[in-house]
Design goal:
This protein is of the alpha/beta class and about 400 residues long. It has two domains: about 140 residues, Aspartate Aminotransferase, domain 1 (Alpha-Beta Complex); about 240 residues, Aspartate Aminotransferase, domain 2. A seven-stranded mixed β-sheet has the order 4-12-11-10-7-5-6, with helices on both faces. It has a four-stranded mixed β-sheet with strand order 1-2-3-15. Strands 13-14-17-16 form a four-stranded antiparallel β-sheet. A hairpin with a 2-residue loop joins strand 13 and strand 14. The longest helix has 15 residues. The radius of gyration is 21 Å and the shape is globular.
Length: about 400
């Protein structure tokens, strides 16, 4: 029996994996046959420091040998320090609070509870092409019909409006709206950034109607765009920010940051999590923060150069994104190109029918980016043979 047969016999939700990966180091991963791949997806924007980063390995090992898990009847030094650092990095005013969870969808679930405490039974507005998670609450905010329809009717009362359309948002808003959820960059839509003026308009309109503004930074947070939090480029202060993915550098952790009156919406007993704030996860996140903060300017600069170079590749229609979250729109279906890139030793994601997504580790080099550009150019030019890469 092959590993594909064994997988099919035991698991089925994700479909058959593209490869059986057994080891990672830096920006590289290896499969069971010893083939090496440049990981330009980073576990879907998670592995910001690559694989087996010494600082993360040391932090996790040290904490696991000290205090591995406690119940939420108690707290721990890593949990307290992580909350303090997150508030500091968010430039949060006095009274802001952090709630630690295990994933992005859980962070958004907590945010949904908060907004429904703010305005009980209120409507929620989300954007078309949005993605906020797969659990039932966060799925109700996710626009893609293929994700939603098998599980409808979904909880909540959600209205979707087109991104960038201030008039449509203004028409949908009313005093019955509890919150508006936005992503600064819509990753699942093909890496499409919201205009800064639009984000500022959302903030003004939500404030005028007494609705909360929730910014989903699950994918864009932790430095992915060259800023610790992407929304800070717009100058706004949200009511709630959700984070996960890159925050733990590969270790499951998420966070909800609540500002102002929103910080007091959930009271003891109204929400909980067994593993949220786990000392080992918190220690991993603290290591990520220490390593990532000095890298932010390099993330922004490499991303800008890379997008400019990718735009020159024949067959590339458009290149979108910020920092090291990049969408490459092609003049053809993206799925076959993704598979050819995988055969050539590059891990990417065909995020929609014509767009490839890159979300590599921040440690990726310009030379490694150039090697990807060359491979992509060769494939788009019809050179379908395997492109040499180091084994």
């Amino acid at each position: 029996m092959t590993w594909q047969d064994d997988y099919a016999a035991n698991l089925f939700v994700f479909g058959t994996p593209l490869r059986l990966l057994v080891r990672g180091e830096g920006p590289w991963v290896w499969d069971e046959a010893g083939n090496r791949y440049l990981d330009l997806l980073g576990g879907i924007a998670v592995n910001v420091l690559g694989h087996a980063h010494p600082a993360v390995v040391a932090a996790v090992t040290r904490q696991a040998a000290t205090l591995g898990h406690i119940s939420n009847f108690f707290t721990s030094p890593p949990q307290l320090e992580l909350a303090r650092r997150l508030l500091e990095l968010a430039d949060a005013p006095s009274g802001a609070r952090v709630f630690l969870v295990n994933s992005g969808t859980e962070a958004n679930e907590a945010a949904i509870k908060m907004v429904l405490r703010h305005r009980p039974r209120g409507r929620i507005i989300a954007l078309e092409d949005s993605f906020h998670g797969r659990t039932l609450g966060s799925l109700s905010l996710t626009a893609k019909a293929a994700y939603r329809e098998p599980f409808e009717p979904l909880p909540g009362n959600v209205t979707f409006v087109p991104p960038g359309d201030v008039a449509a948002l203004e028409a949908a808003l009313g005093d019955d709206v509890a919150a508006v959820f936005i992503e600064i960059i819509q990753g699942e839509a093909g890496v499409k950034a919201l205009d800064h003026d639009y984000v500022r308009a959302v903030r003004e309109l939500t404030r005028a109607h007494g609705a909360l503004l929730v910014v989903d930074e699950v994918q864009t947070g932790a430095g992915r765009t060259g800023r610790w939090l992407a929304h800070t480029a717009t100058g706004i202060t949200p009511d709630v920010v959700t984070m996960a993915k890159g925050l733990g550098g590969g270790f499951p952790i998420g966070a909800v940051i609540a500002y102002g009156p929103a910080a007091d919406l959930l009271t003891p007993g109204q929400h909980g999590t067994t593993f949220g704030g786990n000392p080992v996860a918190a220690a991993a996140a603290l290591a990520v923060i220490d390593e990532v903060l000095p890298m932010l300017d390099d993330v922004a600069a490499l991303g800008e150069w890379w997008r400019e170079e990718l735009a020159k590749v024949p067959g590339v229609v458009a290149v979108r994104g910020l920092g090291l979250l990049i969408g490459i729109e092609l003049d053809r279906p993206s799925a076959p190109v993704q598979l050819q890139l995988l055969e050539a030793g590059f891990i990417t994601n065909n995020v929609n029918a014509t767009t490839l997504r890159l979300a590599p580790p921040f440690i990726v080099t310009r030379d490694q980016a150039k090697s990807f550009n060359q491979a992509l150019a060769g494939i788009l030019a019809g050179q379908h043979g395997e492109i040499p890469h180091e084994q």
